[in-house]
Amino acid sequence: MLEFLYPKEYLPSVFCITADKLKKLGINTLIFDIDNTLVPYWIKVPTAELEKYFTALRENGITVSVLSNSREQRSKVFCAGLDIPYVYRAGKPGISGMKRLLEKLGKTPRECAIAGDQIFTDVWAGNRSGVYSFLIKQVDPKDELITAPKRPLERLIVRLYCKKYGKEVL
Ligand SMILES: [Mg+2]
Fold first, then answer.
1. Rounded to whole angstroms, how far apart are CA atoms 97 and 106?
2. How far is the CA of 13 from the centre of ligand 1 (A)?
3. Model confidence pTM above 0.85
4. Could you give the domains of the chain?
5. pLDDT tens figures, 37-50
6. Ligand 1: distance of its center to the CA of 53 in Å?
7. How far is the CA of 33 from the centre of ligand 1 (A)?
8. Quick one: which of 15, 53, 111, 157 has the fewest CB in 10 Å?
C-alpha cells in the first residue's frame, strides 16, 4: 500500500552509489538533493570528498546534477565552480521540477536516479517520475524547521519498508 513511498534502495551514504553500480542499473545520470543528503543544511559548499566523488562519477560517464527545493542561492553557491546543472525550488514531491531538470539534461526518467534523504520529497518525486530512487541516511541529525515535523512519519515508513524487505534501519 505504501509502495509508492518506498525507495528502490536505502543506503547509509551517497558514496555507496558508484558509477559501476549505476551502469549495472542502466543509469547514466545521478540527481542529488543537497540538504542533509550531501551536506548539513548550514554547509554552503561541497566537501573535498564530495568534489572527488563527483569527479569520479563524471570520469566514469555519469552526469551529475542537483534538484533542490531550496531557493536559488543554495544551489547556485553549492554548484558553482563544479559546473553541475541544477534546478532550484523544485517543489518535490511535485514532478514539475524534475521534468525541468530532465529537459535541461536531455535525459529520460529511466536513465536517471535520484539520491535524497527524505521520503516525502526526494523518494516520492523520483517514484512519481519513473526515476530510480535512493533513500540516503541523513548526514546530520539536525533538520531545518520545515523538515523536522515530517521525520517521525518518515521514520515509521522506513521501519515498515525495512521490515518488509528484511533490511536494517540505518
Ligand atoms: Mg534533503
1. 14
2. 13
3. yes
4. 3-165 (3.40.50.1000)
5. 999 999 999 999 99
6. 18
7. 6
8. 15
